[in-house]
Amino acid sequence: MSDEPVIRVRGLKNCFGDQVVHEDLNLDVYRGEILGVVGGSGTGKSVLMRSIIGLQTPDAGEIEVFGEPIIGRDEAETVEVRKRWGVLFQGGALFSTLTVAENVQVPLREFYPDLSQQLLNEIAAYKVVMTGLPPDAGPKYPAELSGGMRKRAGIARALALDPELLFLDEPTAGLDPIAAAHFDELTKGLRDTLGLTVFLITHDLDTLYAICDRVAVLADKKVIAVGTIPELLALDHPWIQEYFNGPRGRMAAATEERQKEAEVTR
Amino acid sequence: MDAPADFVEESDAGGRVVRFSGALTLAQVRDLPDRLGAIEGPVRSVDLSGAERIDTIGAWIVRRFAREHDASIEGASEDAERLIAEVDRADQPVRMRPDPVPSFYRVLEEVGAAVAQAGRTLLGLLGFFGGMIVSIFEVMTHPRRFRWNAVIQRFEVVGVSALGIIGLMSFLIGIVIAQQGAVQLQQFGAEFLTINLIGRITLRELGVLMTAIMVAGRSGSAFAAQIGTMKLTEEIDAMRTIGVSPMEALVLPRVLAAVVMMPLLGFYASVIAIVGGGIFCWISLDIPPVTFVTRLREVVPITDLWVGLVKAPVFGAIIALTGCFQGMQVEGDAEQVGLRTTAAVVQAIFLVIVIDAFFAVFFERIGWI
């Protein structure tokens, strides 16, 4: 982890009509970390992500990704930055008229039109397998896949350009616990092998304990705290206490404890 | 920025060595795969010590080259080794598209599927019609279950809100018929017959038919989309579990609204079309409104009005039934809603025209000509 932030958000403000979602929000994400973003429903986690990737123009504030300002620039100007990140949307957002393998090829074709078809096919093939999909998922259409497979296919497409930064919007929502655990492993594995920085929105306490290096808590229209889970537990903000020390939070912590013990004794 | 990926070939006593340099990343590989492809013959080893950076695409290219030439990989950094091992693990044959079916079989398959689909739709529609009849009896035996509010609300959506667009359309159609008719009839010096043409064709056919097409486009599609969306969000299932029959709560009010509104709208459309035609006659043919109306009363038999009014509720029922039926067929994803909505409109208009042809023969036989 280096000191140079990959994502730098300062004084962000987002409004929808009269409703203020973010006000004076600051956040830094550092290279090589998995940052979990948590917050109650309606605290604007997805809005924050959409602002960072330029899908939503904030009312005020500045956002830099890889040192490049994002706000107020059109898509053509930020191509170089957009090549360096991959995004997994909540439902996978695969293109329904293309097969999984063709979905993976779309960003490659778009940004690097000179690549030969053979190389495109080879890249798509290993990306599909790398994300843990069975090889026969390649020629399938998104409608033929289960929810978990769709998310993996979405990650394969997000990883197509070998990005340095990966945005995941609730990757484990709607997955069964086994698939969710596999997904956690996949995310951690990708971070370790590819050196990714991961911006992870989640509600899943198990995911937070299992793979996040730091957690940012969204409440009261801003990031009220960022830190490791023990650091957050030391704070006495009521929402944080309720979140991590609620029955589910304690359960997830206990599971994590047990796993660590199991690893030590092994 | 990174230097472009490049390589040099060197030969020493043991054989050839390919030394890579620059960044072996997606952004920098450019024509490297093609140039590597041009190398033939055995290569002893691949040297990565000069490579600045590597990503999985670089690792893939290096590994593929090494395997094709049976070369060993040397001088790989820790990152490079890890990535090469990673892509090595992920190397499995993956097809990009499903196997293509020969076009002859595909045509056969598609024709067969279309026929089967058409048969199923027709049967389904009949079944749906039966289900509706049953629920009408149910409601008649338990009149308290009848949903007046829903029906009145549909009256407004199907009928009142459509007045503007149907009026404008009919007005223009009246003018077009009068204008086209007048041009032809003037050749025989019989432009007076334009009035017969306008009066009879709008009341018998066009008023109701054009209204049916407009209602199919406005309301039939809306029925399919509404019910389809409710199906997707499991609202319909929720209704069933609570004991509310979707047939009674959703389909019956819509069918009833269409059945009641269609004659009213059809009559309204005919009148407006006659007004449009009358205005054209007044301006272009110098036939004053009084003469127009008198002549109209002489040449248009009252049965023409009955022809239109008998057909209209049948058309309304067809439009509402196909709309609701297609909505109920939605399953799976949101794409289906679009497909089913289109199908609802196409089938409604098609069936309306088929039934209209039957009516034409029928009315001719009973002497309402």
Top keywords for this entry?
heterodimer, A: 266 residues, alpha/beta, 2 domains, 10 helices, 40% helix, globular, B: 369 residues, Transcription Regulator spoIIAA, 13 helices, elongated
Helix content, binned percent of chain A: 40-55%
The ordered H/E elements of chain B are EEHHEEHEHHHHHHHHHH
Taking the sheet with the most strands of chain A, its summary is:
6 strands, mixed
Note the quaternary state here.
heterodimer
Give the DSSP E fraction of chain A (strand runs of 2 or more residues): 15-25%
Order of strands across the widest beta sheet of chain A?
Answer: 6-7-8-3-9-10
CATH topology of the largest domain in chain A: Rossmann fold
| SS class of chain B | alpha/beta
Domains of chain A, number:
2
Number of helices, where a helix is a run of at least 4 consecutive DSSP H or I residues of chain A: 10
Number of spatially distinct domains of chain B: 2
Tally of alpha and pi helices of chain B:
13
Major beta sheet summary of chain B:
5 strands, mixed
What general outline of chain B do the C-alpha atoms trace? elongated
* Average pLDDT metric of chain B: 90
- What is the radius of gyration of chain B computed over CA atoms, rounded to a whole number of angstroms? 36 Å
Uncertain runs of chain A: none
Question: SS-based structural class of chain A?
Answer: alpha/beta
Overall 3D form of chain A: globular
Protein name (chain A): Putative ABC transporter ATP-binding protein
Domain ABC transporter (chain A): 7-245
Keywords (chain A): ATP-binding, Nucleotide-binding, Transport
Pfam family, one (chain A): ABC_tran
